[in-house]
Amino acid sequence: MPRKAHGASPSWEISKFLSAQGLARCFAGPIVGYSSTIRSPARPLRRRGVDILHLGSIGLGRGDAAVTAKLKGIILAGGKGTRLDPVTRVVNKHLLPIYDAPMVAYPIAALVEAGVDDIVVVTNPQDIADFRSVLGDGSALGLSSLAFAEQQQAGGIADALLCAEDLVGDQPICVVLGDNILSSTVAPMVKRFAGNPVGARLLLAEVHDPHGLGVVRFETPLVAGGGLPRVIEILEKPSTPPSRHAVIGVYLYGPDVFAVCRSVQPSARGELEITAVNSAYLAKGACSFDVIDGWWTDAGTFEGLHEAATLVAFERKRGSRIGLSRAAG
Q1: Which of 220, 307, 323, 317 lies closest to 39, judged by CA?
Q2: Which of 280, 297, 105, 120 is nearest to 202 (CA)?
Q3: Alpha-carbon gap, residue 149 to 168, rounded angstroms
Q4: 249-263 pLDDT tens trace
Q5: Which CATH number fits domain 38-322: 3.90.550.10, 3.40.50.2000, 3.30.9.10, 2.40.50.40?
Q6: DSSP reduced 3-state for 202
């Protein structure tokens, strides 16, 4: 179930922009219950060792900026959005509304809340002007810097990440997929990584159907009420998932991530898969994990977009500021 947060929420003024693109208002209506496809933990997990951390619900405050200032945020918001065709023929999916904010506002707010306010958005060249129209210079969202990197064509998540290399330099980074919506704060995860920003740190969720995701294999079986065993393998969209714990779209990497991205081989579909990058870190013992607390959903499909809007509407009624930066209040 979603965790409680606090605060009121002004609406985003984006209807004029969306109307200009020929889009209608969408996804209104009361919450009627959680679908079985919503990505949420099936049960709480207790911390075991230094590699596991449950993340609490999102709050009003910002993360420790002094600790996380050296991290740069990367939001991946490119692609064709074919799962949302024909709507995405006229607008990038990350500018579609999820309840009262555009989709891209949610990863931005999550990063700002965690103290990461220097952000690069990777998107299609033809969509950058639209993003600028919606986001401005980022200051109204609590950002100190907002830049854009072009991804000329879809080539996988790792390929999209490489598009931001020139704007990152030797900084460690926090990467968020632009269509991933979480109810939980990532601030504890970011703060832990900022203390020793090397290797990779990944976020896991226990899901009902892991087939279409990157799924972890544990060294030993899970025990009800126990901690999480050591992860020994990450499998991309396995036909027989070895667990129900999937890697979701929040990744923390040290400055060597671009070299690792270049070292992996394209998959059978010709893309540089982020699972291959994460597996490379795991193979050299440089990958740690946190476990999400609260719900998570992929808003990149019509079903997921509707679920996300319904969940956010429910959270708003409870006073949550999910998707709203500190500057938006």
Answers
A1: 307
A2: 280
A3: 10
A4: 999 999 999 999 999
A5: 3.90.550.10
A6: strand
Tokens of 235: 């499998």
- Kindly list the distances between the CA atom of residue 318 and the CA atoms of 79, 89, 127, 322, in Å, as whole numbers in the listed order: 34, 35, 34, 11
pLDDT at residue number 114: 94
Say if strands 145-150 and 214-218 run parallel, antiparallel, or are unpaired. Answer: unpaired
Parallel, antiparallel or unpaired: strands 118-123 and 72-76: parallel
- pLDDT one-digit tens code per residue, 140-181: 999 999 999 999 998 999 999 999 999 999 999 999 999 999
Over residues 117-124, the mean pLDDT reads 97
Tokens representing residue 282 in the block: 């795991």
pLDDT (average), residues 111-133: 96
Alpha-carbon span 186 to 161, nearest angstrom = 20
Q: Which amino acid is at 214?
A: G
Q: Going by C-beta distance under 8 Å and a sequence separation of 6 or more, which residues neighbour residue 196?
A: none
Specify the 3-state DSSP secondary structure of 112.
helix
